[in-house]
Amino acid sequence: MSKINHYDVLGVPRDCDQSLIDTVYKSMVKIFHPDVFKGDKAFAQEKLKVINEAYGVLGNVDRRKSYDAELKRSENSGATEEIYEDGNQNQQPFDDMYADEWKVVIGYFPEIDAMYTSLKKMNFNLALSFKVELISKKNYRDATLLSEKLKRNFLTEKFGSNSNLHLLVVSAIESGNRQFALDLNKDLRILGEDEQTAILNKLSKKYPKFCTVYYPKFGFQRLIGTQKWLQLTPGRYRTFTNQFFGITPSLTAYFIVPGFFGDKSYGYPSIDKLIEAGCLTADEVYSADKVS
After folding, report:
1. pLDDT at 285
2. Rounded mean pLDDT of the chain?
3. Domain parsing of the chain, residue ranges
4. What is the residue-wise DSSP string for 226-248?
5. CATH for 6-157, among 1.10.10.10, 3.30.1050.10, 1.10.287.110, 3.90.700.10?
6. 138-171 residue pLDDT tens
7. Nearest CA to 83 among 209, 184, 164, 12?
């Protein structure tokens, strides 16, 4: 079975009807045909080769059924699909496709353009499929449902069934931390969903700023490892436990900055907040020694 998912190449959902596959294929041929492509001709030829290979399978009803069965067996084995991307891919051809029609559409339904942009951040081909289906079927009032369906299917196929993990991935993409999502996808594909906790813990060390801010938002704060605040770096920060009228003690962390006129302290209600502020990375907390 090909390493590249043919549905990803065309950017269509697995349960789409045959007519959408035909329409998207014709649209992509118009974009990447070497005679009309304005960019690198060699890239266009290679891209068109992959498109034709995908359509050769999905464009044939019987071959598509066999291919779907192969994908199902792959899913049952616990594999997570790799995200298909072209490193040299230019966004402009996708935006130019149906440019006149799209201008009219968003004139009446301006919110649809934001959906298209959001899908494009996730995957260019996914966004093209969204645009082509809306224009070909003229189902503009169903745009929200279509957009959510495309996103949900993409995230489930690439990252498994954990809805909180999906939200984390979307946040990574929207906040400019796309490489986090790509690394997560790769590690899940190799190790499997059963190792999700270990993978997220390791990635928290590679992407401390992103993970410190976003892990707590989606229930993954325990994987950051900030509970190890009992080991602190001398000269970097100190912690004080305060008790007020018998209430459970609360932790206050002070970040110590040495200066010419003496040390200056910045207070935070917790080590987590101190890390979120960028004073320390999670790795620095892990390797720290306790201040007496």
Report:
1. 58
2. 79
3. 6-157, 161-207, 227-286
4. GGGTTS--TTTEEEEEE--TTPP
5. 1.10.287.110
6. 999 999 999 999 999 899 989 988 999 999 999 9
7. 184
